[in-house]
Each structure stands twice: as structure tokens, then as C-alpha cells.
Design goal:
6% of the residues lie in helices and 40% in strands. The chain is globular. The chain contains two helices and 14 strands, in the order E-E-E-E-E-E-E-H-E-E-E-E-E-H-E-E. The mean pLDDT is 90. Strands 2-4-6-14 form a four-stranded mixed beta sheet, with no helix packed on it. Strands 1-3-5 form a three-stranded parallel beta sheet, with no helix packed on it. The chain has a three-stranded antiparallel beta sheet with strand order 7-13-10, with no helix packed on it. By secondary structure, it is mainly beta.
């Protein structure tokens, strides 16, 4: 759906299904917007101007750790790892030998491997928009992110690490 102006009242919830998209010039959200995804498609919400005091949630489908891992990026600004695991108890795969270690983290160009975040030491890590994070769930589940929507382009510097093969 493409429109010029779109308003969500305080008692309303708009759900954008996995294959859906909403593109508008101005969004006033005083209610709730929920964006969903499936294993093959993801909802899209595009606006150049946003106002209101409403909430935003993104329900991102992530494959089971035993099948594959997904590469995702933060859908909202300011999301900490602690916020992500607290909002998704029992969803992100945990190390059977250490329940504080999760199959969630970025690629490290210096070591040439993915980092597995630990809730004890990495809980305050804030997910960067446009940066990729590997994640796997217990059995192919949805991870819910809740936060503040960005308006505008997001850039990230691609750094060259020290690993001879993977740092490039």
C-alpha cells in the first residue's frame, strides 16, 4: 500500500504481514505497528517523516540452529543484547554447557569467526543498524524486536580486519 499520509490512533494496532508493505510520506503513529516475517519474506514500512508516541515491533522469523543460522540486522535503533534476550526468553539458541552464551553475534574480521554473545559480558552491547548478526533459534521461531524506528539512510563502515582470508 502506498499513501501520502497515514495515521494510527491510540487504540489501534496495524499489523503488516510478511509479504506486505506500507510506503508513505508521513506517518503519525499513536498506537502500535507490528511488522512480521516468515522464512521467505519480510514486511516493509517506509516513511520519510514520522511523528507520534506509538510503539513499533518487528517479528523476525529465524531458522533453527540445527538447520542453519540467519544473518539479521537491527530493525530499530538502540537495541541492546540484554533487551533482545529478555524479550525473547527461550527463543535464541543457548549453549547447552553455558546458558549465558547465545548463538547470536557479529562476525569478527580479526579472528575470522562469528562471536557468540554472552549475557554476562555482552549484555550492554547495542546492535548497530546495517551491521549483520548471526543468529539461530531453538526450533525455527520468531524473535520480536521492539524499539524506535529510524527515518533516513543508515550507513556502516566495512572495516578490514587483520585475518588474512576473512578480514578482507
Amino acid at each position: 500500500l502506498s499513501v501520502n499520509d497515514f495515521e494510527i490512533k491510540s487504540d489501534a494496532t496495524l499489523t503488516i504481514e510478511p509479504a506486505g508493505s506500507l510506503n508513505m510520506s508521513t506517518l503519525e503513529n499513536n498506537g502500535s505497528i507490528v511488522m512480521q516475517s516468515s522464512s521467505s519474506s519480510s514486511a516493509a514500512l517506509i516513511t520519510s517523516s514520522r511523528t507520534g508516541s506509538g510503539t513499533y515491533s518487528y517479528q523476525k522469523y529465524v531458522s533453527s540452529y540445527s538447520t542453519t543460522n540467519d544473518l539479521i540486522s537491527a530493525p530499530f535503533t538502540g537495541l541492546s543484547f540484554t533487551n533482545t534476550i529478555n524479550n525473547n526468553p527461550g527463543v535464541i539458541y543457548t549453549n547447552p554447557s553455558d546458558a549465558t552464551q547465545f548463538l547470536f553475534g557479529p562476525f569478527d574480521n580479526d579472528s575470522g569467526s562469528y562471536i557468540n554473545y554472552d549475557s554476562d559480558t555482552d549484555g550492554s552491547q547495542v546492535m548497530s543498524n546495517a551491521k549483520g548478526y548471526r543468529v539461530g533459534t531453538q526450533s525455527g521461531q520468531t524473535i520480536t524486536f521492539t524499539g524506535s524506528m529510524s527515518v533516513g539512510n543508515t550507513c556502516i563502515i566495512a572495516d578490514q580486519g587483520s585475518h588474512e582470508t576473512y578480514g578482507k
